[in-house]
Design brief:
α3 crosses α8. A 6-stranded mixed beta sheet has the order 3-2-1-4-6-5, with no helix packed on it. It contains 8 helices and 6 strands. It has one domain: Rossmann fold (3-Layer(aba) Sandwich). The protein is an alpha/beta fold. The radius of gyration is 17 Å and the shape is globular.
């Protein structure tokens, strides 16, 4: 299905390398009459994007998924962000399935013996519900994050969720995000300074030796498995990227 608000045949070259703050301003104006949702896992990229959006004073839902397995530092960051940007609504659309009930239904430590299923229950299915009825989805994705995202368009129609996906940070890397966060005083997860390049669930995220906040890596996620993505963002071929 094609997007009802952009012409998929129209070249988007002018936007592919535009500065993210400019892209955010464009998206907020272009789609001001559509229902727009910004999603975040409170990674550094998401926090930078929230700050860019907040500067326009537009009331917007910032949706996050509480998997019930997040780090205490992530919950604390959520509270700091909500206090800093009071005109934005920080909305938890995570699963209501308690960890104990999950263990009874699927077995103990599902994240170990079937991590894809665990992510589906705690991330993918809740995201489908969160984006139901949304017209435009703002994400903090960047092309450098994985091979499957190397050709990520700034604007694309997401077949998985049937929504227009806008990724203003697509052309940036972690160093530029880190610079933005530092210059604008944006809150970020202190775990980035303790060797965590990215921060997900406690069971599936580990520190990486030598990691610094200004460098991006998927190392430390789902260690010991071929899994590299949670399934929220599929590849162009409709598959979850894996290590080879």
């Amino acid at each position: 299905m094609a997007s009802p608000w952009i012409d998929p045949a129209q070249p988007d070259a002018a936007w592919e390398s535009a500065a993210p703050p400019r892209l955010v301003a464009w998206a907020l104006e272009r789609f001001r009459h559509q229902r727009m949702v910004l999603t975040t896992s409170f990674g550094m990229e998401g926090c930078a994007l929230i700050d860019m959006v907040a500067g326009h004073g537009v009331p917007l839902d910032v949706v996050y998924l509480d998997t019930m397995f997040l780090f205490p530092e992530t919950y604390a960051l959520r509270d700091r962000m909500a206090a800093r940007y009071p005109h934005l609504a920080f909305v938890n659309r995570g699963t209501t399935l308690e960890p104990e009930a999950q263990a009874e239904q699927y077995g103990a430590e599902l994240w170990r013996h079937d991590p894809d299923r665990c992510c589906a229950i705690r991330k993918v299915e809740p995201m489908q519900s969160a984006l139901a009825g949304a017209d435009v989805w703002l994400t903090g994705l960047m092309r450098i994050q994985s091979p499957s995202r190397s050709a990520l368009p700034v604007v694309t129609w997401d077949w998985q969720y049937q929504v227009l996906k806008v990724s203003p940070l697509a052309s940036w890397d972690r160093a530029r995000v880190w610079d933005y966060v530092q210059r604008h005083g944006v809150p970020y997860n202190p775990l980035h300074e303790r060797g965590y390049p990215t921060v997900g669930c406690t069971h599936c995220t580990a520190p990486v030796a030598g990691s610094v906040p200004g460098e991006y890596s998927r190392a430390g996620r789902w260690s010991g498995t071929s899994k590299t993505e949670c399934g929220l963002h599929y590849t162009a071929q409709g598959t979850i990227e894996r290590k080879v």
